[in-house]
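Acyl-CoA hydrolase
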Amino acid sequence: MPARLGEILDLMARVERVGRTSVTVSVTATAEEFKTGRRPPAIAGRFEIVTVDDAVRPVAIA
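Predicted structure tokens:
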């Protein structure tokens, strides 16, 4: 269910995996409905973040 204008989003991020050159993070969000107080899921996503050098090649996480 998408969030509507005026609702409050509550985001939660969790590190799923840490590799040599990357980190995987999952993010979920609920949107609080003012009239009912319900907090149904609004969005979910998974992000792979890779550390790169100036030539855009993966490098080890410092």
